[in-house]
From TrEMBL:
Belongs to the class-III pyridoxal-phosphate-dependent aminotransferase family. InterPro entries: Aminotrans_3, Aminotrans_3_PPA_site, PyrdxlP-dep_Trfase, PyrdxlP-dep_Trfase_major, PyrdxlP-dep_Trfase_small. Keywords: Aminotransferase, Pyridoxal phosphate, Transferase. GO terms for molecular function: pyridoxal phosphate binding; transaminase activity. The lineage of its organism: Bacteria, Pseudomonadati, Pseudomonadota, Alphaproteobacteria, Rhodobacterales. Pfam families: Aminotran_3. This is Adenosylmethionine-8-amino-7-oxononanoate aminotransferase. Its cofactor is pyridoxal 5'-phosphate. It comes from Lutimaribacter pacificus.
Length: 445
């Protein structure tokens, strides 16, 4: 019988039977390595016994308590644990069920904070091109990815965009602090162009996700954007939906630069693939100001449900108990070195980048000019399909503002061992060989 389900396209995939650790099996018994943790979600791997037990225990007690009727112990505990991981002065946690909801929440809390401070003229949220912040209309307004936003243009807010700091495309040295300043200056210029009094916030993925393929900011960038936001009284939002939770080798992506935002969004690895869960974390003073001024006019029905929160707490506990942040750092370094070595074999790999186990490689026609592969090759979908047939799941996107260019995220769960990286690399090399042959691209022996 034809499926009644639909998502964004016709993409026939086999039915999932079961999953354990970094492996998944379809109903025919074929095994896959979850080389992208789904969409960078299943950070602690599948079927973790401690998380499943915590969920069972919570289910025996209660699975839902509406937030306007009850506080729950489960949500209090997760809020406490989350706040303890945040920069000083960021202790207020607002639960949601996913990344887009988390981003929407940051935008709306920022706006109400400005209103409460008598700054009604502030409403513009500057973001980067490309970027991805979610699919709901508000989050899409700050998303810099034309193919997703074009159909909805008339229905969206037109938010100012600045270029993401893709030093590798612009031929700049990402380790040179002058490069960080060069891109951060674009933020200041945009603020001046828009009128500083009208700008509410700047939203940034500290380590880029799907839209940029694990883009790491150049030296000095994160510190400088913090300074610029402070100069103009603009809130800084770190969208850590993908980079938060330890995958980069630190709990927050921004921890690599030691900078603190005013608002954070997190999801994906926060629920770890066990439950739909996300959160906004805000500076205490922002929340107090908004609550004093009459309250936050925003909320989602399933927010803070005890089952999701119990799972979220168990995920954080597992990350710490098993040393998964450290593992992401060390195994990530090894995987990154193996990906870098692929550049010797495949001249059409133009760049390898990322932090910890948030890693990506980009395919190009010419490594010097970074000319993209011909769109007709459909590299972004062909390589994924070839790898999938071999039992390796990776995640891809077209980049360059959505016009061309193909990048691939290799982001296995944070429990991945060095031996499993070797297994992934064997399958990936075989997939790249097949792709090169099919696309008529040269490679070294
Ligand atoms: N922000 C970032 C940085 C993301 O990577 C994503 C998801 N890819 C989102 C927001 C949206 O999250 P969700 O799909 O859970 O709504």
């Amino acid at each position: 019988m034809a499926s009644k389900l639909f998502y964004q396209s016709r993409l026939p995939r086999p039915a999932l039977d079961r999953a354990e650790g970094i492996y998944m099996w379809d109903i025919s018994g074929k095994r896959y390595i979850d080389g992208s943790s789904g969409a960078m979600v299943s950070n602690i791997g599948h079927s973790n016994p401690a998380v499943l037990q915590a969920m069972r225990d919570q289910m025996e007690k209660s699975t839902f308590g509406y937030r306007l009727h009850f506080q729950t112990e489960a949500s209090e505990i997760l809020a406490e644990k989350t706040a303890a991981l945040c920069p000083d002065g960021m202790n207020r946690v607002f639960f949601v069920s996913g990344g887009s909801e988390a981003v929407e929440s940051t935008l709306k809390l920022a706006r109400q904070y400005a209103l409460a401070k008598g700054q009604a003229q502030r409403f513009k949220v500057i973001s980067r091109m490309p970027s991805y912040h979610g699919s709901t209309l508000g989050a899409l307004s700050v998303t810099g990815y034309a193919p997703l936003s074009a159909p909805f243009e008339p229905m969206m807010q037109h938010m100012p965009k600045i270029p993401a700091p893709r030093a590798y495309l612009d031929g700049l040295d990402a380790d040179d602090p002058a490069t960080g300043l060069h891109y951060a200056d674009m933020l200041e210029q945009k603020i001046l162009d828009e009128g500083p009094d009208t700008v509410l916030a700047f939203i940034v993925e500290p380590v880029g996700g799907a839209s940029t393929g694990a883009l790491v900011p150049p030296a000095g960038y994160m510190q400088r954007i913090r300074d610029i936001c402070d100069t103009y009284g603009i809130l800084l939002i770190h969208d850590e939906v993908m980079s938060g939770g330890g995958r980069t080798g630190r709990f927050w992506g921004a921890d690599h630069w030691g900078t603190a935002p005013d608002l954070i969004s997190i999801s994906k690895g926060f629920g770890g693939g066990y439950v739909p869960l996300g959160a906004m974390i805000a500076r205490d003073e922002i929340v107090e100001t908004v609550l004093d001024a009459g309250g936050f006019a925003h909320g989602h029905t399933y927010a803070g449900n005890p089952l999701a929160c119990a799972a979220g707490t168990a995920v954080i506990d597992e990350i710490h108990r098993a040393g998964l942040i450290e593992n992401s750092a060390t195994v990530g370094k090894y995987l990154e070195s193996r990906l870098n070595a692929l550049m010797n074999r495949y001249p059409f790999i133009g760049d390898v980048r990322g932090k910890g186990l948030l890693l990506a490689f980009e395919l190009v026609a010419d490594r010097v000019t970074m000319e993209p592969l011909p769109p007709g090759l459909n590299a972004h979908s062909r390589l994924v399909d070839i790898a999938y047939d071999k039992g390796l799941i990776i995640y891809s996107r077209r980049t360059r503002g959505g016009l061309s260019g193909d990048h691939f995220l290799v982001c296995p769960p944070m429990i991945t061992t060095q031996g499993q990286v070797d297994e992934i690399m064997e399958m990936l090399t075989a997939a790249l060989d097949d792709f090169a042959a099919e696309a008529g691209l040269g490679r070294s022996a």
